[in-house]
Automatic annotation (TrEMBL):
The lineage of its organism: Eukaryota, Metazoa, Ecdysozoa, Arthropoda, Chelicerata. GO terms for cellular component: cytoplasm; neuron projection. This is Stathmin. GO terms for biological process: microtubule depolymerization; neuron projection development; regulation of microtubule polymerization or depolymerization. The gene is AVEN_154965_1. GO terms for molecular function: tubulin binding. It holds the Pfam family Stathmin.
Length: 207
């Protein structure tokens, strides 16, 4: 048996003079779900089946055409990317070769300048060595006799100084010998004088 909701209405008057209804009702009961009956199946004719098959075939062909079109676009994209890659690699190789050639030419110029500077320094050094050599030979040829004369003069002077030194030393030796002789004579005189004086003192004491 179906239950109906019971509503309790009360009238309340607000301060503004308006009236409104307050409805208090019980919770609604659970309603049963209505089951919708499925429509009756219709009989399908052969022409309808053929139409459906034809429509399905058209959809399949359309899907196949779309897939082939997508594959062709992807293939064209791959070919375009490959062409762009090849052109990029070609441009990169060209730029790299140009940069390498520039660097090699600059390195060659720097190397030539460096070799020229080294060769110039070697030539200057060789000229300086030759100048010193020629100056040395000139001095040796022109001043060899003067050097020999100076050496002979120095040798003679050294010999004279040596002879004078020997003579001076011999004089000193003779003076030393004379002094030693005089000292011996004085010593002997003193000894004899001492002996004589002691003898005289003894004789005086005996008298």
């Amino acid at each position: 048996m179906r239950k109906f909701d019971t509503n309790l209405k009360s009238f309340t008057e607000s301060k503004g003079g308006l009236k409104f209804d307050v409805v208090i009702s019980d919770s609604p009961s659970k309603r049963t779900k209505k089951v919708i009956p499925s429509p009756n199946k219709k009989d399908v004719s052969l022409s309808e089946i053929e139409d459906k098959l034809e429509a399905a075939e058209q959809r399949r062909l359309s899907q196949l055409y779309k897939e082939q079109n997508m594959r062709s676009r992807r293939l064209n994209r791959v070919v375009e990317v490959q062409k762009n890659k090849n052109s990029f690699i070609k441009r990169f190789k060209t730029k790299a070769m140009e940069s390498y050639d520039k660097k090699m030419r600059a390195t060659g110029r720097n190397r030539e300048a460096y070799l020229k500077s080294i060769q110039k320094k070697n030539r200057d050094l060789l000229m300086r060595v030759n100048e010193i050599k020629n100056t040395t030979l000139f001095l040796r040829d022109n001043h060899f006799d003067t050097f020999c004369r100076k050496f002979e003069t120095a040798d003679k002077t050294r010999q004279i100084q040596f002879n004078s030194l020997e003579e001076h030393l011999s004089k000193q030796d003779r003076c030393i010998e004379q002094l030693q002789t005089q000292i011996l004579e004085i010593t002997s005189l003193l000894q004899s004088y001492t002996i004589n004086s002691s003898n005289k003192n003894k004789a005086t004491d005996g008298i």
